[in-house]
Structure formats: structure tokens, C-alpha cells
Design a protein that fits this description.
homodimer, alpha/beta, D-Maltodextrin-Binding Protein, domain 2, Alpha-Beta Plaits, six-stranded mixed β-sheet, 10 helices, about 30% strand, elongated
């Protein structure tokens, strides 16, 4: 039976992603679900073989990359991203039945959630005290336990904790989404769809302009990037690895050639997977639907030259 | 009188940075200190004129950039980074006098602190429960109030809250440091020292390879980068600005020429300041002490050609 590890408790956005991945057939309906307390812990269960898949948050459309996840993917035994899914991030303000707006003195939220509803709170609950919680699910549980008067959490956390919504779809920035990914052990990536992403971690040589030289491996092949972050190596202050997300699939000839070029040029390249794009399409260039060029005709031209055939 | 805003309460690492900046003469000894609850709030007090300077965390040698700070610098009225200072990040485990190790059931910490002492806790307090706090100073205050048995916080937070250290210099990663900066309203930057940093936020054109083209403005002038991050614009999912840190000063000819090139090429450039390097020196190339080249002789050659002088 397939075992899937995710950040719990139940009622988090991560659990919503697990449910959606299951509905889409990427997690078997009879899978054994295991909750853990951090993205890194979920990935470690896959590394140890105690889980087959981990469902972890990768990126927020508002707050950017989830660095805990990226750092955990970049070190330790290699793992591979297999699928992505975007979950709309809107909060319900959850209360115990019967609580009135004027009775609310404290609100439990995860700090990331608090940042996303600050404007709403300032308008509707200007005097409320903020009780930090370790997850959105834990925030709802704290209200059920009487430790706070209200929680900002996914609607489902209210159902699970017998709470009522005082307000729904609360979010300062409209259409905020969080991207979750399914991660497994190294394997052949899912089939190319023509709208795919590839992610790698680069350690560039100890030379001036080395990052630009590495990125030229992509640019000369017209392979578009969708994100780049420098992350501390944790080995020495001031040394960084680069997390680069590419538009395209390992089976795209241009991407394959660019990755081989990066492997030649960089001191270290870690492949984090190729998988179908599902949610928002972030190309650095902002060009939606940017796809790697087709190499067939240029390669055929070279083959013709080798055969002594037509030169044109 | 100078007013300085910083993330409180007293006893945070940010307060330590304020004390150190004061000892170094960058904050007047008689300054009026105002505590706020986030880096963004500190910066907004400078924008509104209610404070002259904000002291905010910019980057951790372990966890990378403080995205709250960068996002707050990238939007709103422009502000300017004037000085940096690195604070060693080591925690004291603080208890009420008389508490024994075996009595500790709960420990209050800021979530970022918890991540940095997880190994120590697993070894010495494997069964302890984690009470999230909004700051290291608040964690110590929670112990003083009896809301937790211990706190992980700077030593000074123990002094301020009448707590005793059970252990000192606790940190899973040795030599971890956090970089703080002093931020003011736009002004001429502090004088060039020859070992300086410059920071800009770029919005690159909507074209393939545009990020590489922008970075070539630096590379062709042998100007080294020390960090790069894509950050969501928050205007549309999948669109990003780039935060780039450069080795050198606005008064370096090479940096000035590169910045002018970026201004020509990019859709938008926000200058975040030039200031003396103090702490760890992060060049992407890993070359410590990398400095922009001197342009004097090449410019003199061009002037000579214009005068019809020697060509060599």
C-alpha cells in the first residue's frame, strides 16, 4: 500500500492538496496517510522508505518559495518532484458556535496566515491579540480547546473541529495560491506534456561571472527560466547554491542539452525533477506558454552534413 | 533628536544590533528608540517621518534573506540602506531561577529560533513541547510570566526578564550570524571604502533570456554579484522582480556604468543603497574581496583618442 507523508494536523492546506492529488488519481484512494510536523520530516520519511510519497508546499504566489522545502530537497539523499497542484489560499475566520464578533479578543493563526489577512483584521478586529500556532490546523484546534476566541484557517479545519465560520474567503491579496508538490524517490519523470517544469540546484565554479555563464547554458538554447534563488550552502557564510526552475521537460531536446551543459560547467548539479505544469505559469520573461524550441530540423541538418548531403 | 524604530520587545537580536550600531557611532547615543512588531512597520515609520532610521534584519547566514524585509523595501516610498552589522546568533536556554532540567516540559521560541536549535533540543530535551512566540524577546517574557518552562533567546533577554541561563551558546550550526541594516530616507550613500555592497531591485523586460541580458550588464563590467532572488511581484501570479546584491559602490565607475546599463535595459530599477561591507563577504563567485575594476586608464585611452592623441 502507498504511504503518503504530509504536514498535519488535518485541516491544513497541505491536507487539501493531498485530497486534491487523490481526486486527480496521483495518490491511490486507499493510501495510508501519515501526518508530520514539517516539510523536511515528510521528505525524510520518503528517504528512509517509511513513506512512498511526500506532499509538501513549494511556493506561494504571494510569499515566494517555501525555503524549508527547497533546503530539504537540496541536501540529503536525492528525491524527485513528480506532480504539482495549486491550492487557492483563502481563510475562514472560525469560532465556537455562539461567539459574537464583539467577544473576540484573540485569534490563533500560523504566522504566514497572519501576514495574509492583516488588512482584514485591521478593519474588522483592530484590537484583537494574535496567538501564534504551528499550523492552520493547530490554530483551529486551539479555538476548539478554548485557547483562543477565533482562528484563521481553511474552511475544512472548521468542519473537523466543530467550529463555525464568522467570515469566509478572507485574504488581503485576491487569488493567492500555494503550490504543493508530490515528491518521491528518483525515477523516470512523468511523461512530457509540452507544458512542463524542470528544477535543478546549481553550485557554480569559484570564478567571476560564473552564474551568468551558467545561465547562458539556458539562454543560448532559448530555454526559459521561471525562478531563481540563491540559498546559503550552510557550509560557509557567504557561499550560495542556486535553485533554478526551467520551463520544459528533461525529454525536451533543448532542456536536455542545457542540463548537459550545466553538468559540464557547474561544480555540482542536483536534478529535482520534471513534471507537468498545472497552476500559474511563471516564466521570468513573463511569456505564458513559453516552450523550449524544437531541435529536430537543426539536428537533421547536422546529420545531413555528416552524410555529405545538402548544405542549407 | 534621532528616532530609531526596531523589532521589539527588548531582548531581541534586533535590539542587540541597535546597541552595536550605537556603540559604533551610527546611531546617536541619545537616540529615541521605538519598538514595533515587524520589519515592515519599522520601515513605514521612516517613510512617514515618525522615525529617522529603522534597524531591520536583512539576511541570515543559515536561512538566507529575510523576505519580509526585502518585500517591504521593494514597495512603497523608496528607502535606502545605509549601514550593515552582523550579530552572532547563539541562544541561551533561559529558565526561572530554581528550575531543573527534568522539570522542563515546554520551551518558548520564535519559529526561526526553533529551527536553529532543533538538534540541541533533540539531544537534551527530547520530550519538550514547543510554544511558538512572536519574537525571542516575547519568548523570554513568556517564561517570566509562567507560560512556558524555558525559552531559547539571546542572553540579554534573560537579564531583562530576571531569568537564568541553563545552557549558553546553543546553536546547531556553528558561527550562524544575522545581518542587520540601518535604513533611512533617500540620501547620498556613505563614502566608498573599497569594500562595499550595492543592492537593487530589477524588473526585467517581457522577453526570453531577459534576466541573463540584465546580468550581462554586470558581468561585462566585471562587477560581481553577491546574491540574487526572484520575488513575486504580488501583482500577478508568476511574475517576479529580482533582488540583486552587487559587490561595489555607486561611486565605483564600473558599478555606476553597470547601474546605468540596467536602467537602460530594465523596465524598472529601484536602488536600495550602497554601504560598507562589514560582515561575511558573499560573492557569488566565492572570491573574497572581489572589487570592481578601475576604469581610469581605459577612460583615459578613450579621451586620448578623442583628442587625436596616442592610440595604444
Amino acid at each position: 500500500m502507498t504511504t503518503v507523508a504530509y504536514l498535519g494536523p488535518r485541516g491544513t492546506f497541505t491536507e487539501q492538496a493531498v485530497l486534491d492529488f487523490t481526486a486527480a488519481g496521483h495518490i491511490p484512494a486507499d493510501a495510508n496517510l501519515v501526518t508530520v510536523t514539517s516539510p523536511g520530516a515528510a521528505l525524510d520519511l520518503v528517504r528512509s522508505g517509511d513513506a512512498d510519497l511526500a506532499c509538501v508546499a513549494l511556493e506561494s504566489s504571494v510569499d515566494g518559495p517555501v525555503t524549508q522545502t527547497f533546503d530539504a530537497l537540496a541536501t540529503g539523499e536525492p528525491l524527485q518532484i513528480l506532480r504539482e497542484h495549486d491550492v487557492p489560499v483563502a481563510f475562514s475566520i472560525l469560532i465556537r458556535p455562539g461567539t459574537q464578533l464583539e467577544d473576540i479578543r484573540s485569534i490563533a493563526t500560523h504566522p504566514v496566515a497572519e501576514a495574509q489577512i492583516r488588512g482584514w483584521l485591521a478593519e474588522h478586529l483592530p484590537e484583537v491579540g494574535f496567538v501564534p500556532a504551528t499550523s492552520n490546523g493547530a490554530a483551529a484546534a486551539a479555538v476548539a480547546a478554548g485557547e483562543a476566541d477565533a482562528a484563521a484557517a481553511p474552511a475544512r479545519a472548521g468542519v473537523l473541529n466543530d467550529l463555525e465560520p464568522l467570515a469566509e474567503q478572507v485574504a488581503d491579496i485576491k487569488d493567492a495560491r500555494t503550490r504543493f508538490v508530490l515528491v518521491g524517490r528518483p525515477q523516470s519523470p512523468p511523461a512530457r506534456t509540452g507544458h512542463d517544469r524542470t528544477c535543478v540546484v546549481l553550485r557554480v565554479p569559484n570564478q567571476p561571472a560564473s552564474l551568468v555563464m551558467a545561465l547562458m547554458e539556458l539562454a543560448t538554447r532559448r530555454v526559459d527560466m521561471s525562478r531563481i534563488e540563491s540559498r546559503p550552502t550552510r557550509e560557509r557564510a557567504g557561499t550560495y547554491d542556486f535553485h533554478v526552475e526551467i520551463v520544459g521537460h528533461l525529454e525536451d531536446a533543448a532542456v536536455a542539452e542545457a542540463l548537459a551543459g550545466l553538468h559540464r560547467y557547474c561544480d555540482k548539479v542536483r536534478y529535482l525533477g520534471s513534471w507537468p505544469q498545472e497552476g500559474w505559469i511563471g516564466g521570468v520573461s513573463g511569456l505564458e506558454g513559453s516552450v523550449p524550441p524544437d531541435y529536430a530540423s537543426s539536428r537533421e541538418w547536422v546529420r545531413e552534413l555528416r552524410r555529405g548531403g545538402r548544405n542549407g
